Structures are given as C-alpha cells and as structure tokens.
Amino acid sequence: MNTNFSRFRLRSVAAVVASALAATAAWAVEPFTVRDIRVEGLQRVEAGTIFASLPLRVGDTYSDERGSAAIRALFDLGLFKDVRIDVNGNVLVVIVEERPTIADVDFVGTKEFDKAALQKALREVGLTDGRPYDKALADRAEQELKRQYVSRSLYNAQVVTTVTPIERNRVNLTFTVTEGDSARIREVRVVGNKAFSESTLLSLFDQDSGGFMSWYTKSNQYSRSKLNADLETLRSYYITRGYLEFRIDSTQVAISPDRQDLSVTVNITEGEKFVVAGVKFDGNYLGRDEEFKSLVTIKPGEPYNGEQVTETTKAFTDYFGTFGYAFARVQARPEIDRVNNRVTLTLQAEPSRRVYVRRVAVGGNAKTRDEVIRREFRQFEASWYDGDKIKISRDRVDRLGFFTEVNVETQEIPGSPDQVDLVVNVAEKPTGSLQLGAGYSSAEKVALTFGISQENVFGSGNFLGLQVNTSKYNRTLSLTTTDPYFTQDGISRTVSVYHTTTRPYNYSVDGDYQLVNQGASIRFGVPFSEVDTVFFGVGLERYAFDAQSSFAFLTPKSYRDYFQCKTDATGLIISRCEQDSVWGVPLTIGWGRDNRDSALVPTSGRLQRANVELGVGGDMKYLKTSYQYQQFFPISKQYTFAINGEVGYGKAFGGKTFPIFKNFYAGGLGSIRGFEQNSLGPRDAPLLFQTEGAALGGTKKAIFNAELSTPFPGAGNDRTLRLYGFFDVGNVFGSRAEGLTDAQYKAQKKLRASVGLGVSWISPLGPLRLAYAFPIRSQKEVVDPATGLVTIPRDRIQRLQFQIGTSF
C-alpha cells in the first residue's frame, strides 16, 4: 500500500468509545512529517479553538498514537458529537460535526416556581442559552428540576424534555412539568424526651401536621432546610436549659407508598441537666482580667446556658478586636462532674498578634461610588485594627439601604504578620422606584398615590423624590431632596417643597371648605453619636382657608373664627374673611432612635421619637412638641408584648391663637381603636341640621397602647400573620380658652379606653391591620332638658376598623 495515498478514518459516537477503539479501528499509517493541517465542518466554533487543542503542529511527526490523542483532545472540548481525521499525503484533514447550540430554554406547566428560579438552577448544572447541547447534560437538568420539586414536597413531579431542532444547527429545549400534589406531613414525633412534653417541643417547630390555616402557612409541606432549622431550634431549647450533653440521634422521614404523606420522627437523648459550678480564666487577657470578667454573662449556680456561653466568647473576641487583635481565639472548655451534675467552664484565651489595617478595599459596587461607602467607615487605613469600629462601619453601610448584602472580610498579608486588609463586599439592589398605588381605609376611603424616587442618584448616595397623594381628606404634592453628607462631618441636608389640600374631619356633612397649605423647608441632620441624630429645620408656609360654598352654616365656626370670617345680614352667607390666609416661619428640632429588630414585624427593641416645632414669624406664633416611645418584649418565640406611649403639647404665644390646623387628633387605628378616626377631643359648634359639630382635635395629647401578639390559630409560628389583643387609653384635650363650658371641658378631659382583638398580616397587597374593639370608657350623649339640644355629643363608636395599602 502506497503510504502517500493511504487514508484512515476514525469514527466515534462518544469520546470514551472513540479513544478506546481508535487504535484498533484505524488503518495503520506509517509515521510521517505533517506538512499542513486543514479543518472541515466548522459552523460556530473558531478554527483557532481546534488548533489550540490539537497536540499536533505542522512539522511534527504523525503516528497512530498521536492521532488517537488528537481525537480525544477534541472530544474533551465537549463541542463536537463526531470527530474524524483523514490523511491525504502529508496533510491532516480534521473533520468535525458540531453539537447543536441551545437557542432557548422554556418551561411548561410550572406553577410552584417562577421561570427565573428554574433557569438559575439549570445554569448551576451548566445548561443555559448559548451552550452546546448534550444529552447527558439535559438528563442532569431533568434530575435537577425534580430535585427542586422534591424540596417543595412535590415527590410525584414528572419532567419530560423535548428537543426541537431549528435553523443554523440550534435546538430549543422545552421542559414539560407535571407537578402533581405536594406530599403533606401527616405526623411529627419527638421520641426520647422526658423533661419536656412532646407538645411543648413540637410547638417550637415551624413544620407540623397542619391545621385549618395550612393553605396559607404551608407548614405541613416538608422541607429539609426547614426541618434542619427546627432541629437547631430544638437543640437550642435544650442547651439553654442546662442539658449540656443533649443530642439528636437520628431523624427519620418516611413517605407513604403513594408519595402523598410523610411522617417525621426525631430521636433524641436529653442527657442530664447540669448546673454551672463556676467560671475560670486561662490564657492571656492583656492584663485586663477585670474588664473581661465584666463581659461574662454565664451565671454560676444556674443551669448551663449555651447561648450565654456563645455570647460570652463572642464578647471576648470582639473586645480583643478593639485592641487590634484581629485573630484572637477564645474557647470555653467544660469540665463536667457527672456525679453531681455540675460543670465548670474554663475560658481559654489566646490573643495571638496585634495588627493594623493596611488598606480598605471596596468591591461589588457597580453603581455606587467608593466614597459613598468609605465615608461610612470608622475604621481607617494605617490605624490599629478595631473590631468595634469595623462592626459599626459595616452597620452604617448596611443602613444606607443601597445593598442587599454587606460583608467585611479580614485578609492576612503574606510576609506581613502585623498587617491585614479589609475587603468590603456589597451586593447592590435597585434604589430607584416608580410607584402607582391605591389604598383603602375606613376613614379616608379610597386613596391614590404616585411616587417616583431615587435613593442613590447617580451613585452619589443622595435622595430625590416626588410624591403625590390623594384621598377624601388629604391631597399632597411634594418634592424632596436629601444630601446625607452635605458636610464632610456627616451633616445631612433635606430640602422640601410641598402643596397640600386638607379638608377638616366632619362626620355629618361634607362641608364645601378646605385648607390649602403651601410651603418649603430645609432641615439639617447632625449626628451626635453613632445611633443618635438631631435634626434642625426651618420652613416658610402659608395656610389659606377656602370657604368655597360661602354658606356659613356649612362651615365650622372654629375655622370662621380663626380666619375672622364675616357673614352677611342674614347670617347665612360668608361675605369675607379678615385673614383668608396666614403665613408663618416654623423652626423644628427633632431626634430619633430606632433599634427594633424589624420595621414590619418587630419582636424586640425600642423606638423613640421627639419633635419640637416653634412658630417664630408671620401670623403664627406657637410651640408644638411631641414624644413617642415604643418597646417590644419577646416573651417567647410565639409571643411578643409591646407598649406604645405618645404625648403632645401645643401652646400659642405673643398674643396669638394656636393655629387650629396644628392640633393633635386621636381615635382610630394607630391611636385609640374603637372610636372613629380622629373623632375624639373637643368639637365645633353644630352646623345647620346637625346634632354635633366637627372634631377639632386639641392642643394636648396623651395616648397609651399595650399589645400582646400571638400566633394566628392554625398558622404555626408564621410571623407575617399574627393575632393580637390590645388595650388603648388616652385622648386629646382643649382648654377653657377655646370656648368650652364647664361641662364640656370636663367631658373632653375624660380619658377614653378600649380593649379588643386584631389581626396583622403582611399580605401580598401590603401591610394590613384589622381591629375589633370594645370601648370600655366613652362619652354618652348629654341633652339640655330645657331646650332639648345636645350639649355634649356622644363619642362616635366604630368597632371594626381596618387599613391596607398596596402598589401596582
């Protein structure tokens, strides 16, 4: 056979088969020097990819072994479903057949997951648009989809893959899913418990056998991650009550033959209950033993508490960090006396070496400027490492609200044992919003809102917002901008321009009158500490009284008196007002502190607000102050007790009358439930055909609320759906100077109170609060027997109240 014209062909269905059979299936070729290499069959793959992967080059000596190696190398790329090598003289011809490319991945029949979540899951196994299609990869994708459904207790989910060829050697993949019904937890058992009842332990679990609210909570749908969380809760429950050697022996999950029901059995060994005999120190405490002892929360004589041990070791590590010891190690070694069931804890400390921070690097901020993050840092470069300052810095960056994640990592520097770098990694979130909204409340009826805002304009950290609200009683148009670092010291500046229209609350007729408020303000926030900010502001505002109907009998007398409105000879038509508008210059001072664990569903922490408004110029001279205090007490995982107190005081000076539109109001949700919204306090003189006048509010306010929040029956430990009982007491008060009789003055001084039940729900439409109240202290109607006229009106009772807001 003439070797110059000999030709061999190697074919393979799979890379492994090709490599195994290449040597035996090939026609033997005498070694020769390769003069040229050609590639045929390419459509999308670049020829350079072939040449870079071939273990042969022009000028190399070709042999059967090197040909087999070349075929294996090309198959290993995963881009081809067939590879052949032809020899034509001294020329190698590489003939390939490319795998089709995935053009699109779609899902049919998926209800439990949205498509984005499934696409992400498939990307993690390597299947996505633009990748070469591989049957084995598609099979792995099928298994991954089934795994995702198993995580949601859908054990009967079926997945069928359809491959549709399209032009240019591409394919569309369609995964058709038949989800079936999810498997339900039929029973949860805890076996081996002696100290606590099984019902007590099962009440700690978020997963259970279900109840009438399971359609909402889905607590009876098995999830391995939720079960692991429940097991950690169970372990913590025992460890914090002295059971130092508690362990979970096994967890058994049994599924019924029809794959519709599950039973979960947790086998535990409680062990003995241990009491702390004492706490000893060992190691190097930098000569500050007394300072470290003050951080110990472990209490001798009480049952062993794992949370206290963890809290103490963490406090020690953090305290070492404040002195620059970034790599301090603190361990709690128990010395167990099983005869007397006592344990002595030895706190072993090794501060390691002291370091300083060489550099602070920022990563992950594609939009936000570095300076916006760096200016929140209290740990400076070229300074000693300080754990407290780093934690404060991380919290300050997180409170900006621009990021979903903020992590600070400490990196050692090779060759420099006394230096570290800090790397701040952030994950940005969208900070701009365009909002169209609708809301409904029993007082305001339908309210429409529009808002457009950007909390991080051009990555500068500045805020810019436009808000429009409309409702039965209040309409607002406002533009606000905030520069949080107006000065380098962190003083913020907020500028607002607004126009509001307010109709005073009137419960019998809709009088055709309104207050129009126009103004602008500027406010500065001065940080006095890391958690306290005091705000100073000044504004210019104008109030106009628009009695559009001109009928005096439809306009509250208090507003006519304040704006000095005159009537005609009949006393029915308003002829003019001496001051149809007033203007003023309010100065404001405010302070706030909020360390609640959540703004929507708080279970612990405290909220405090204080504000002082002082009218110093124009037609209005007054003082208005308010203070609010909230405290949340976590009784257990299921129960939270909360108190709220609000007080307010207003007074005019300089011979002026206190502006009636600056009054405090009370009644309704957020105040004293069971009474109509803003209906309490002094009332105006009745209008024509009325038995009572409009609520005017008052210059003094005192409110106290107490709530006990519990799980909603059947909802397990779901924090978004809660049942609460409440007690409210308080009122707003006027003064004799406002034209009240002695009887009216005493009546309006009387505190109102109510008790009741309510439901709070973080619904898909927005936060909802519903309350049903029973007034236990209210004002009854008083009638003058001589005239038959109502001298003191009754309180307006509204037992059922709710409020919900939504955006769409």
Produce a short descriptive summary:
The protein is α+β, with helices and mostly antiparallel strands and 808 residues long.
Characterize the structure shown.
With 808 residues, this protein is α+β, with helices and mostly antiparallel strands. Helix 1 (15-25) packs antiparallel against helix 3 (64-76). It folds into 6 domains: 15-98, membrane protein fhac (Ubiquitin-like (UB roll)); 101-178, Ubiquitin-like (UB roll) (Roll), CATH 3.10.20; 184-269, membrane protein fhac (Ubiquitin-like (UB roll), Roll), CATH 3.10.20; 275-350, Roll (Ubiquitin-like (UB roll)), CATH 3.10.20; 356-428, Roll (Ubiquitin-like (UB roll)), CATH 3.10.20.310; 436-807, Beta Barrel (Porin), CATH 2.40.160. Helix content is 17%, strand content 42%. The chain is built from 14 helices and 37 strands.
Secondary-structure map with pairings?
Elements: H1 15-25, E1 32-33, E2 36-40, H2 47-53, E3 61-62, H3 64-76, E4 80-88, E5 91-98, E6 101-108, H4 115-124, H5 135-150, E7 158-166, E8 170-178, E9 184-191, H6 198-202, H7 214-217, H8 224-239, E10 247-255, E11 261-269, E12 275-283, H9 289-293, H10 306-321, E13 329-337, E14 342-350, E15 356-363, H11 370-374, H12 387-399, E16 403-413, E17 416-428, E18 432-441, E19 445-454, E20 463-470, E21 474-483, E22 492-502, E23 513-527, E24 533-547, H13 557-562, E25 565-567, E26 574-577, E27 581-594, E28 605-618, E29 622-634, E30 640-652, E31 700-711, E32 721-733, H14 742-749, E33 752-763, E34 766-777, E35 782-783, E36 790-792, E37 800-807
